[in-house]
Design a protein that fits this description.
alpha/beta, 10 helices
Amino acid sequence: MTTREQVQRKVVEIGIVPVIRASSAKKAIAAAVAVAAGGIPIVELTMTVPGCIDAIAQLVRDMGSEVLIGAGTVLDEQTARKCFDAGADFVVTPGLDMETIAAARAADKLIMAGALTPTEVITAWKAGADFVKVFPASAVGGASYIRALRGPLPQVRLVPTGGVNLQTAAEFLQAGAAALGVGSELISSAALEKADMSSITSLARQYVTVVQQVRETMKPALV
């Protein structure tokens, strides 16, 4: 069984959290397989996916030993508990909900708590959030906003979501993001409708390359 600390390290190591929104559980599962094939062994299935919890349980059975399976758009503690019971490694909230954070801590499971303002970010971190999902990041300045938050809050692991794409990913990482939440820019509804999983796999590889390249340039020079 993967511990919360192991999940935390893996999220940082991978650097990309694919956010899967789909019109059916079947399409969501196919998308999860596609991003994993592209080198991103982590997925977040949003609760807007019909039958999401059953899909999470199936992914845990089929891929749980190799892929981190998370639940997104979790709005309350009851839903969080159901996701954990289904085997989810982590939950993600779109906004700040203290009861959901408390439920995750009680279950010793990882949580990415949604926040936007500095006050919300600090509140989420103090409450025990492992990561703070800054959403919607692009609407408040994008990478420059992440950099501004990191100034007084360098200890907070920020995961910007919303507006993260292949053009902006490097900027967010250079600004100090611990990882990036990527949704439709990686898993588009068009690709899902056409069952074009190869394009999702190809995009996943490109995101992996961006993360690797940026982190290589950010390594401190050896003296």
